## 1
Amino acid sequence: MPASKPELRRSVTPWGSFSWGYSDVGADIFVGLGLVLAAAAGATNVAFLFAGIVYVCIGLAYTELAATYPVAGGGQYFVLRGLGDIFGFIAGWAVLLDFTIDVTLFAWTCVDYMSQLIPAFTGSLHPWVHFGVTLGLIVGLALLNVIGVRESTAFNGIVSALDVVSESLILCFGFLFAFRPELLLHTMHVSWPSPYHLMLGTSLAIISFVGLESISQAAQETQRPASIIPRTSISLILTILIFALAYSNLALGMQPWHPIHDAAGHPMQFWQIFPNNGDNQGKAVALLAAQIPYFGAIAALYVPLLGAVLLLISSNSGIFGSSRIAYAMSRSNLLPSLFQRVHPKFRTPAVSIAAFCGVAILELLFASFPSLYPGAMTLYAHFFRHETGLDFLADLYAFGAATSYSFVFLALIALRLNDPLSPRKFKIPFNLPIMVKGERAEFPLVAVIGFFGIFSILVFTLFTHPIGRVAGPSWLVLGLVAYFIYRRRRNLPVLGSEQRNWRAQQTDILRDAGELELMDEYIANVKASDARKAAALPQ
Amino acid sequence: MNASVHVDPIGAVVALLIACSIGAVLYWMLHPPESQVQKMAAQTTREVKQMVGSIIVVFSPEINSRHMMALAVKLARGERSELLALYVIEVPRTLPPDAEMPDEERAALDALGAAETIANENNVNLRTETVKTRATSEAVIEIAKREKADLLILGSYLEGKYAGARLGTAIQEIAADAKCDVLIGVEGKHGKLFGEELA
């Protein structure tokens, strides 16, 4: 009898699963808050609310899909299974863009947060230092990933716990001691943005909610994934939503404890310190925390550090995620087998890590170029409306997320119709019962709402982000050309899909996940379906 | 620094709501319902805790329990059980019940000494006792009753080293008559067979 193949150990607990997601999504508010405040001004809370509603739909979709198909691979796998190879590639390729941006954006803002404690890291004052430290972080994380060292679930869990407590304290103390509802209404009234800026703010707000699929990527290591993942996903959705909405309202309605003045000495409201100031945008939560009475004195010391650690973890998860997604796509023949190659000594996907960290460094160069070489400012101003490096990274991040999430909604609808036999431990509410090929299926109405929501954000992104609408689609076109060449060379269907035995795969997935009751239910469903079909055939 | 603290009732309510909602969400997440398998595992764990409240490891010239002692100590440590190492010397009927049997008594000292060493190394409290009896199985059952033992741990005895009678008579009688669980460990005589085959 052959020895059984080694498998991932199911050691990720509910908190571990939550912290995997939180270390990715939780860091987003550290980046997104300042950008949205700068863009949407008095409607920041509305921008977060709209993005939040879409995010809840995305979260519910991911929760259902990850609980039904508890495999590593995330959105790319769901789209591949639901819509076919080429759409799986597009979704995966968009996610890969997001992961590479994730690496750069979070390393960049990690340095911004550190600059709160170490002024030499401030981007506008010392652009070369800022660039050098960010580059050093990316290269360092890449090397650690090649060697195979990455943060442990326990470390993630501790940092996430500290962050949840800290963010809750910031909000509780902030609302208790510094919130003025009349100021919030006043700010919303007098600083309501133009429709263009509201769209810009909304498209940036979505980046505060990206990364939910980290939970599904750890599905193969999670105990009882079909039961635990719905809980951890829903908890993550609610936690992040509460934080995002609370932060945006607090920032607009906060009477600063410390008086804030602009360069001319005029007093300003808190949210007014962000427009046209990349340094402030990159460390919004730390600045807000420092304004809280009593707690602010302590928070000013440790929140920048905690934020920097969380952002560094998130940057690292971008490297890990991109290499693993590329590995998974390569195994599905969506990318060349080169991306499956593992380092002979360290047993890590070194080629993928090097390739996508290389892309991340290119993005860093492009984002830093105007500040490093002032002569380029004119060029960037002409083509990209004076966008800062942080704006550039956020543009692409929003584009990649909106694209891949749009496909995930379509995949959810397709899988509901194509695969009604798979037991769904969690199901999005509000479904319309229909019959598809003799099987009872349920059409998810929320997925339609979610699709239009995220698709509108994609349109906002293309409309309001000058770099995003050029670089994002260019990335997709470049990928599609490479995909066509690769598939043609391998004699694989270019526009169609490979034949796969999804039934056998689903049984294996549920067995490997330890969800034996669901596996039994699936097999029984399949048998009953076959029996029904056989009975319906003419004798 | 200008400390203009402003406490607004709405702000206070929102602060409370945030604290409560985050706490409630995390509590709900961390307390998922148990699956059927988890319920079974929990039941078994409770039974094991009851099972191993008091453990007796039995040694005798016919019962080689040396290899079971480490297991007994690990079990006792994990479950914080009371552990008794019992050495039974069977006195032939040709001798008086309290007859001196220096060789057997010396063997008892060795066995119990080794047991104490293992227990001390693992920070487990161990009591030792040597008894002389006409019938090993009766004495073991009697002491198990006296100690209200939950588990008897026995080694095995290869009579004549032939495969047909792996367990001695005493072991079979104890297993048949004991009112508590009996764990019998048969020592492997052929090494790690499957591992060696694969290697």
Note: Chain B has a mean pLDDT of 82.
## 2
Amino acid sequence: MVIRKKYSFPGYIYIMPWLIGFLVLQLVPLVRSFWYSFTDFQLLGDPKFVGLDNYRKIFSGDLSFLKSLQVTAAYVLIAVPCKIAFALAIAVILNQKIKGINLFRTLYYIPSILGGSVSIAVLWKYLFMNQGVLNNLLTSIGLPGADWLGDPNLALGTVSLVTIWQFGSSMLLFLAGLKQIPESLYEAARIDGAGKMRIFWKITLPQLSSIVLFNLIMQMINAFQDFTPAFVITQGGPLKSTYLYGLMLYDHGFKFFRMGYASALSWILFAIILFFTGLTFKSSDSWVHYGDSL
Amino acid sequence: MIRQKHSFAKIASYVLLILLAYIMVYPLLWMIGASFKSNEEIFGTLSLLPRNPVFGAFASGWKGSGQYGFGTFFINTFLMVVPTVLFTVFSSMLVGYGFARFNFPLKKILFIVMLSTMMLPATVIIIPRYIFFRELGWLDSYLPFIVPALLGCFPFFNFMMVQFFRGLPLEIDESGKLDGCNSFVILKDLLLPLCKSAMFSVIVFQFVWTWNEFFNALIYISSVAKYPVALGLRMTMDISAEFDWNQIMAMSLLSILPPVILFFSAQKYFVEGIATTGMKN
């Protein structure tokens, strides 16, 4: 990997853009945000140090904090596993020798390109609204429609569907991983008389486990911070049933301009994400199998 | 017998794949159809094709309802996206080369730091960044998008390029050095021509992400004259949601076209790029 054993100066020149960017646009903001979280800072005027006040307020009486924590937890628990399961299932099916695989790959990937775009959120609103497409479809085959976006019990599920629908990039990673599994492993298993399901659980899944881990962590980090779908489709309603943490953060920071309070909220989110990422990493010792390449 | 079972499984997976693909793209097909339907027809029928096609939705939607139309929003989006993408390619290339081919003090630690910033939630630094850009007078401009791209603040792309460079044989560099090229010439003349697929992946990802950017646009851009399409679309929806569904669908459709076109034209390189940048690890 390394050309010369002795240190060379040019390396620093090449990574300089990132180094400056990291210091100025990531490290300094990180420190500042930590400081702001102990202040009362209304954007106009200087931050006033208030110690742990923000945190105390958040934990002792902020009902919307509790609500959005609950909503976000439910959202992450619905969206992330479903997305990964879909991505894996489709990747396995697409990994067979199938004609037109490129077409399928593209079709499944398209929703992910459009990603969290507003147009998709707008579209979702129309598909799932009261006299929307889905309800028309259901009534036409004699089933009762539902108030997908207006019913607090259903709205979060409907919003999660947009996220799950975009399983394309996870799927591509799985597909790339499947291509790396040596055919000899499968052959050996087939000779031993293992069935399809057994092969999947005993060979495919363990071989893909490092990609499962990567997808899990990336999707989790993203899902905890999601904003656009809920903001455009439901504005957090009805009855705050889709009031994701990202929405609450936006409200405090950029609607009420309570920068100190919002900074404290963002550090709590950071701690939560760190905790769950760490937990996932820790648990991975027992379920991720690295190939001999690592 | 075995053969029969085999082909049955194959047919079953085809049916499943086609059915699922239909469900996946149905919303998009519906969107296309809806932009040619009259408002009464949009929710009245289930068929994707419009019974009495209307073509006015694109023209009237494009004009917009306020002072600024989608012409402005589209130009704005390009003004924001194109420099961001170009600078991302440029910076990730340099940083990737630096980490992949040179040895310098603290390299290991810096690399780990860079990787861990990939996991740093954007929300933690969004507020100080906003305040910082406000202090610099950059709010309501596209600098909050362009400058971070120039400064390699998308570690995901840096990492991708590192992985890609690591996959290129060292002999290329060695032969360049024997010919007396300096490291920059080696990068520019020998390595970059081999980077096409990785470059396309960076371009596609960054184009699509910046194009779809909503949250950052929402907080950094405040005047309607500078709205990118995403904000323009949302504004249109707020103003006219009661009446002009077909216009909104038409504009939504137009707004997803550039990323889709880019994806299709770069698809070959893109998929290859993902496979070769070590995302497989």
Note: Chain A has a mean pLDDT of 88.
